[in-house]
Predict the 3D structure of the following.
Amino acid sequence: MIWFSVRRLALLIVSLAVASVVIFLLLHLLPGDAAQVAAGTQASPAQVEQARHDLGLDKSFVHQYASWVGGVVHGDLGSSVLSGVSVSDQLNKKLGVTVPLVLGSTTLSILVAVPLGIFASIRHRRVDGVALSALTQLGIALPTLFVGLMLIVIFGVHWELLPTQGFPSSGWRDRSEAARSLVLPVVTLAIAQAAVLTRFVRSAMLDVLHQEYIRTARAKGLTRLQAITRHGIRNAALPIVSVLGVQVAGLLAGVVVIERVFSLPGIGQMLLKDVGNRDIVKVESTLLVITAIVLLIGFLVDVALRLIDPRLRSAR
Amino acid sequence: MLFSTVPARRTRWKWVAPAIAGVLVLAACSSSKAGINTSPGTSGVPASSVADTGSSTGPDSTGGTPATGSDRIIRVGAVLEPTSLDILTTAGAALDQALLDNVYETLLKTDDSGDIIAGLADMPKISADGLTYTLTIKSGVTFSDGHPLTSADVLWSLQQVTGPDSKSPKATSFKSVTAVDATDQKTIVITLSVADSGVEYALTQRGGAVVEKDATDLKANALGTGPFKFKSWNQGTSLDFVRNDSYWGPKPTIGGVSFVYFTDANALVNAATSGDIDIATGINTDLVEILKSDSKLVVNTGTTTGKYTLGFNNTRKALADQRVRLAIREAIDHTGLIALNNGYGTLLGGPVPPSDPWYEDLTSVAPHDPAHAKQLLSDAGYASGLTLDLVVPNIYPTNMSEFIASELKKVGVTVNVKPVEFSVWLDQVYKQADYDMTIVDHVEARDIANFANPDYYWRYNSKVVQDLIGKAQAATTQDAASGFYKQAARQISEDSPVDWLFLAADVTAAKTGVTGYPLNNTQSRFDASRITVSG
């Protein structure tokens, strides 16, 4: 297990190094001139060239890459070429919105999806099981944009129960206010996530329920519920944990629509704007941090799978 | 261990592994879909009328409990956020909107009718040859940190803009300036190489803003003489100012103002209807009806200097011919275009918006006349048709370019619409002029001189116009300048180097009881100092 972790971590570092090259090249191959964006439409050509020099964009690719990665290795993610604010400060603030949003919706979706999925699998031939299945289809089909707007209309505009826009500028200092502003976005995201997850739990459980060991467990005198809780869930957990890992990773960078709908100053919004502004170093460092988090999630999922399933531990 | 179970026996499990692998693949497919399926939504929302309307205060709950009267923080919702607060080097109207008049003040100002009036300095004494401007700085003005305003601050600020290493986006408006001197504590003398009627106006704009000489960290901070003090900037959320209680002029009656930024037009409107913000600026005209039906809000329509322009590349073979350019102008039903914009906008026939002093109605130069347009195209040798690319920044609603394409189709011009990101547009169109036609909202006031610059992205090169605008700039009186500008504007409209699609309207909504905010957006600035709240 330790050897496995070491190997996986080494792989993670190599992956990050490769990712840094890909990120760097992709951003420098993007059309659009960062110096022109920074200098603005009224700048003279000389001013644009000056901006290019100030941004270091007149240096060679290798030099630019080395100075960026060199900084990152020493823990310096650089600073925004436009606002001069350090990237790590900005990231901390934005992750303080996006991470609670993603974790909140994931937790909520697990709490909803696991019982529902088990229920749907046990009753998959009954009317209520089929209805639940259809409902999850609907949950997947509804665009989060639409769900978000509906929730805003109902809870924000009509009943005026919850804030619909933005995040307190004081951040998490006012915890209840910050939490309140995340309620609707979390619910919106959780609906889509739970719908997907319910289907996975259902199919994983269906798979497991027809296994011989469940029949054997029943034959040994366990009740159906006992058989499911003692033998079923643990086996069904494998695909579900994998799905969760992919979901969380996808959400980190993919919540931009929700952030837009609810005007949350999260990482997706920031990235979208920075790409438009060609704030290159900031985009590079942000993408690298997201990549690192995603790789780390992959690592944790692998470790979790091995903890759950002894067979994987012995597999090479 | 997550679950306590009886250890499974290996033999029974052999065939489960492929099944799990299958599920994993499935899982990967559909969950990646779940993560991404949201993104089409972003492009589905019209990106609103670009440029720089509004600033607004939004959802952030700054000062705790919003009270009435003098403690109330007014929240203004806006769609464009500055990228940096550095007034000396950062381009863009978003910065002007929030900071000018609120935190920073300019040496001269314009009044509601567009006339130039005194600001931090009295009206300049101009020498008879028009080459020397003497400015006297007002007494009793202090920066919000208590430091008194002196000519040293003014000198330093002007040098940042006019100096050889200037990074100011306004550097070109001061190109005639050869020297700036402080002759005593209160007097600044500006010396020009040639008479330049534009200098006074330039001093009312960004280039005339006064920054404290020893100010530090200008990118993330702001310290000026204005009625509000900079409090904080939460990038991506809000820019917060509080009342400057030591302000030298009439103090605001509100406790402060927060500009709250919304990247999504719907989100801005939601914030207005749910009461999260007091004033919403730069409202997408598609969404105005929602606000009008809300009895708690007052919706205002004002004018702007935003000239939606269909730019032609005047060096492209077909478009080098004035008849082709005029034909395109006459082929487009501009009234229909305004209707498409929900009726918001005004017809504009030339480069000058009505709020500029040298405005003249030029809409009769190229009236809607498809038959004549066809004739012109035929005269120019394009009777059998013509194909042109229309490169459009993706911040503009697509229905505008589609409408233009369908209008031009009627006279035999095939238009390929090519949406691009704004930063790509800056490089490809603005810098390299690699395009046939393009759409941009030119938001600046008094920007007719762009037509005298043959290197500007239209590549329009008219000696007559350059001569007239040169004379206007060299005029020693504003009246004389206006006369030349009017002639130039007519000549430009007749040459048709671009088509003026319409003049944008400024739609603002505010809570009932909130008054005194700017109704027009002709200066790209949102002076919050006169806002009052009743009830």
About this structure: Residues 172 and 178 of chain A are 6 Å apart (CA to CA). The two ends of chain A are 11 Å apart (CA to CA). Chain A touches chain B through 93 residues (CB under 8 Å). Chain A has a mean pLDDT of 86.
